[in-house]
Amino acid sequence: MAGNFWHSSHHQQWLLDKQDLVRERQHDLSILTEEEYQKILIFFANLIQVLGEQLKLRQQVIATATVYFKRFYARNSLKCIDPLLLAPTSIFLASKVEEFGVISNTRLITTCQTAIKNKFSYAYTQEFPYRTNHILECEFYLLEHLDCCLIVYQPYRPLLTLIQDIGPDDQLLTLAWRIVNDSLRTDVCLLYAPYQIAIGALQIACVIMQKDMKSWFAELNADMEKIQEIARYIINLYELWKTYDEKKDIQALLNKMPKPKPAPQR
Amino acid sequence: MMDYEFKMKTQKDRIKVEDLFEFEGCKVGRGTYGHVYKARRKEGVPDSELKSRPDTKDFALKQIEGTGLSMSACREITLLRELRHVNVITLIRVFLSHNDRKVWLLFDFAEHDLWHIIKFHRAAKANKKQILVPKSMVKSLLYQILDGIHYLHSNWVLHRDLKPANILVMGEGNERGRVKIADMGFARLFNAPLKPLADLDPVVVTFWYRAPELLLGARHYTKAIDIWAIGCIFAELLTSEPIFHCRQEDIKTSNPYHHDQLDRIFNVMGFPLEKDWEDIKKMPEHQTLLRDFKRSNYANCSLTKYMDRHKIKPDSKAFNLLQKLLMMDPNKRITSEQSMQDPYFQEDPLPTQDIFAGCAIPYPKREFLTDDDSEDKTENKNRQNQQQTVRITQYQQQNPQQQQQQGNGDHNHGPNPKRVRLNGPHGGPEFHQHQNHAMQHQQPPGMVYSTNQPTQPSNFHQRF
Fold first, then answer.
1. β strands within B196-307, DSSP E
2. What is the pLDDT of residues B254-309, one digit of tens each?
3. Which DSSP category does B100 fall into?
4. Partner-chain residue, chosen from A61, A76, A97, that has the shortest CB–CB distance to B78
5. Calpha distance A81→A71 (Å, rounded)
6. What segments bear the compositional bias annotation Polar residues (chain B) (predicted)?
7. H or E stretch including B103?
């Protein structure tokens, strides 16, 4: 139910397991290495973030759009729909679902064009190729492949509750909030419940700030093994970022990425 | 760009609404939301396609107005995909028709709704005919409406457009006589809204059922707004008259302040005393209110008097609960949870799961609309918007005498000659309980609307 995570489609249908992801990505991983695949998804999560910020959307909307995007590719190859089309489509849909209203089509397209030209010229040399009709067509496909499950629970609210329990600590909240944002560049939103992700992010934040909260975490009654897995995913992301220069590498990766094939010519 | 193979595969897997259902010429509803058809499963369609509804033949198919995923289509799908309660309509399936970009929603078919039921009683009243229904029916209806709304509210969902046309009642079948709250196109989640709830749709909730705080410019929708609408529906069930009936020119103005509607509310309720509604001073339109209205004009108005004219006694439990639902101050209005505990529901006759309590259903089945009907309806645009429903032309033909009686009764505005007046004359045989009050001692609990019909034995006290 809308107010209850345990009865939600998110919990019942969209907490996948690792094996599902491995199986569904088989095709893409025959072309890309696992690391390359991850870098591509990171790039598009960044794109969604930038588009969302340009459109002045709240982080909640951006996060929901990112989850739609990731859910689609958790079940489909990157070649099925060009991610450059699916990214703005996810934003368009998320904005409606999160009651931010219908983003005007021209505004969405213009924002994409400007962002690609000014912020992502290191990835794309040509201008943004899609128009309103592509977004609208793509929206139906996205909706179908999401099986109309549109309510996504995010870790932000559980995070606020947890911080409240610890006692007000703005620095800790800001840091943990950012880690939650970063977690959208990993698979955790497909694999774990939002409250677990919140705990995982909080744990990393405590380590970084050298805040000893061991006994508090022990009392949470959470599956600490899962929390450790989540933390591992996020720490791996930080490890990757240490050596990875997106601006330098992404164009080659996008070229290597499996692409949609047009209708056969007769 | 999309992959050709992927497109073809998705297309092949996609089930089209016309592959599963027969519904041509079976339109049963038309409104701002779109069209509703009574659809019959085609032969050979396996149960698995319909999420295990083996015995069901009839379904309701709603084709959403316009093309693509509109905001209201999006809301309805988003929320109904997650909701599950016996008194909330179940979304069985969504069909996306790629060619014409239409969105179709599949629901269980509900044979009745409160708009038609109340209309039927009003017509009977005008013709001095009586209708046999269980004494507990109104109570059962109210209880189930509250149950459904309580579920929505406890899941952070506001309905925001409750009115008789949106309260469905199941006909014969395994859910016989069960209330289903429908039309969630306006509904939305309200925990931590990203924008003030009033920003997106300047005006929701049909005027007659709109809470006074909304009419005074309240920026945030609340549970209390749904409760007010339920109070209005309850009063209408008790009397067959829309309690805050008000003529209206245009719906969906961007300004929530509505002079005539407020005037109508004060004419029934009296002008609110400051001690009864302290925060009224904080309402955005409070100054306009002071400018436009004089308390002394409403000195003789009260809900007690209004309901008494409709033969609902002020000491009855029904009246008592009604008063709590129609509290002017939203902060003092009762919640759905509290109302379900009200003594009204503990008093005989108890509410039943089948609102007809096993008795014959006196109401006609839905009729199919022809396209002419919908065209005629556009001429009655106000009415249509008001009720979002059907058969206006037929109604006009049936009730010429009601039209002549416009302006009688306690509505203080002049009749609009072009508009059908739904209110029957007052004082005729009422749709409700007053007759029964007189009869209670002589008659076993049972049928209510008739005083001289034999009582039908049946399972009246089947409890929830």
1. none
2. 678 889 999 999 999 999 999 999 999 999 999 999 999 999 999 999 999 999 99
3. T
4. A97
5. 13
6. 449-464
7. strand B102-108
The per-residue pLDDT for range A211-229, each reduced to its tens digit, is: 999 999 999 989 999 999 9
Question: Between A156-166 and A194-208, two packed helices, what is the crossing angle to 10 degrees?
Answer: 50
Strand partners, A173: none
- ∠ at Cα B321 (B317, B326), nearest 5°? 145
Mean pLDDT of B431-457: 36
DSSP labels, B294-317: -GGGGTT--HHHHHHHTT--TTSH
- Tell me the residue length of chain A: 266
Q: Please count the helices (runs of H) and the strands (runs of E) in chain A.
A: 15, 0
3-state secondary structure of B188: strand
- Chain A contact for B4, CB < 8 A? yes
Q: Are B64 and B72 within 8 A, CB to CB?
A: yes
- Find the residue in A nearest to B195 (Cα): A100
Contact B251, B181 (CB under 8 A): no
Chain B residue closest in CA terms to A264? B4
Dihedral of the alpha carbons of B205, B211, B217, B223, in degrees to the nearest 10: -80
Q: Positive or negative CA dihedral for A177, A181, A183, A184?
A: positive
Give ∠ CA A42-A48-A51 in degrees, rounded to 5: 140
Using the structure block, give the residue that is written with the tokens 């609102």: B355
Q: Give the per-residue pLDDT at B54.
A: 64
| ipTM of the shown complex | 0.92
* pTM, full prediction: 0.83
Among A82, A85, A150, the residue with its CB nearest the CB of B77 is A150
For A204, list phi and psi in degrees, rounded to 5.
-60, -45
Q: Which residue has the higher pLDDT, B438 or A18?
A: A18
Give the integer Cα–Cα distance in Å for A125 and A116. 9
DSSP string, B148-182: HHHHHHHTTEE-----GGGEEE--SSTTTT-EEE-
Active site residues of B: 161
| The token pair that represents A172 in the structure block | 């800790």
DSSP annotation of B191: S
Question: Which residue shows structure tokens 């009686």?
Answer: B405
Amino acid at B50: L
Q: Does the beta carbon of B195 lie under 8 angstroms from any beta carbon of chain A?
A: yes
- How close B159 gets to chain A, by Cα (Å)? 13
Q: Is the model's pLDDT at A15 over the cut of 90? A: yes
Q: B188 to each of B73, B193, B322, how far by Cα in Å? A: 12, 9, 26
3-state secondary structure of B31: strand
**Distance from C-alpha of A197 to C-alpha of A186, rounded to nearest angstrom:** 11
How far from B360 is each of A80, A228, A230, B171, B306, CA to CA, in Å? Answer: 56, 62, 60, 10, 32
Residue B225 three-state SS: helix
What is the rounded end-to-end Cα distance, in angstroms, of chain B? 55
